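Here's a chain:
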Amino acid sequence: LRQNLFRLQKRVYKAVRDGDLRKARSLQKLILKSRSAQFLAVRQVSQLNKGKKTAGIDGLSSLNYRQRIELVETLNHYASDWKHSGLREIPIPKKNGKTRMLKIPTIPDRAWQVSAKFALEPAHEATFSADSYGFRTGRCTQDVQKRLFQNLRSNKNGTNKNKQIIELDIKKCFDRIAHSSIMDRLLAPACLKQGIFRCLKAGINPEFPEQGTPQGGVVSPLLANVALNGIEDIHHSLRYADDMVIILKPKDNAEKILNKIKMFLAERGMEISEEKTKLTKATDGFDFLGWNFRVQKNGKFRCIPSEENHRNIRKKIKAIVNNSNYGAEVKAKKLAPIVRGWRNYHSSCDMSSARDSLWFMNQTANRKFRKEKKVNRYKANELCKKGFPKVGYKQNQHVNVKGTKSPYDGDLVYWSNRNSRLYSDATSEALKKQNHSCGHCGLKFLEDESVHLHHVDGNHDNWKSKNLLAVHQSCHQQIH
């Protein structure tokens, strides 16, 4: 099924890149009708997605296998004339004390949106800018981090110390995007455009009936990227979804650039948030995507985790360590994935300080563990090693994605090699040994599904390389 869908998506990407929009639209219709796409869309929303148990207005929070097959049949009959149900609204508190409305579609609507995304994404990937990184397959925040390093690192002339940064924030981006700006730029056949239009109208704010994409919808981030595409060409900048940094040389006029951006956003029904948008010297440092970037007085570039990012990880660790409902061993188990994930995220920045190494948090956890019964000093040390696993770091070690390359260009060897860098230790070794292919089905690993380690003899304490097989998540389920 994945091979069938990917073959169609690759053809859509190639058709748009070559300027043959008529052919692209007919291929998109094929994807909407494709049995493979329908099965994979239902599987994505009912089995793989983290929010698979979140109910819409119909109260349905999960599907059994019969209901999944029925949903595939529904998609088969009505995909080209899909009518959206209403959205369930959940208020989410923001950092500044305000609330954001998360709008949750029903499971059938989410399945249709995934199949629509299958058709739309390859077409727009062929047109997106190389400086846009948010909500795009094959791209990540570390790419932005490396690009900032390339722009601000020390050079012979020392001019990077004189550079300035505009930290741009768009006011209520998802809630204010004009529907007309999305529809005008959408590369899709009429039936798919009609479905997307109904999807936008299902989540409207009564005060702004012609604006907004529902946050919580599968296809919303892609639609936001479609509307904002081209903002990076106004001046040298890097964009991650609706967050953006503009890099200014000493001669550049910040006001002129901001006015051009204001005009660009006004056409799309949006405006700049004046209170959050600020002009900063590169030597003063600025926060972006959880990091603090700064050019030091000696001209060298430095990137460390931001204050706010630190506060968040400390909160998470404290919540587990201070919880009296479970013992030290369970705490160590719960801590391990959180700490490992945080350290992996920051593995390409400078983590040499005691604060960044979480030394103080480790000591506090050790002290709390020793207060519990049956936990002596030796056992507390062992549990802290488990709970705070070490992850190597090296500043600017990340390798950037090449230019405008996309996973839909068909270069599977490049993409499977690149995605295997996301894994470390035993998983990384297994992937190299298997030439970045699944040990069960033989297909190359792509970004949309996680890699699992399978113990061949069933003994989970046997970590010898001969006993480990890297497989897809779904293949792992099939094996067992």
The CA atoms of residues 235 and 257 lie 7 Å apart.
